[in-house]
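Justification of resources, computational component.

The compute hours requested in this renewal are based largely on the per-chain cost of generating structure records like the one below. Each record pairs the submitted sequence with a full structure-token output. That output is archived, and it is also reused by downstream analysis tasks.
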Amino acid sequence: MPGRDPNLWQAVLAYIATAWPQFYAAGLAFVVGLIRSIHAGNRASKSWLEAGLCGCLTLAAFPVLRYLGLPVDLAAAVGAVIAFKGTEWFGQRADELYEKLLGRWLK
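The structure output for this chain reads:
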């Protein structure tokens, strides 16, 4: 039974110690996204969903930054920007980029 293994909690704490920047950045993006969304007057359910999406996007930024050779601490700033601007703003920009790059050939 894994709950009785004395090394389980030591392993969990060791993982948290190595992954704390990811949790910090995702938490920061979550809080900023939640506050911005509530301040904008969105419904509570939409605010929570947008904040969760901002946190998940920030977690996804870590491996991308590592792959590009950029400092992974930059993910906290990326997550804060995503949360501050809002997911709808980024969605609109992604749609515009899609139309410019691929839309004209797919019509």
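Residues 20-106 form one domain. The mean pLDDT is 85.
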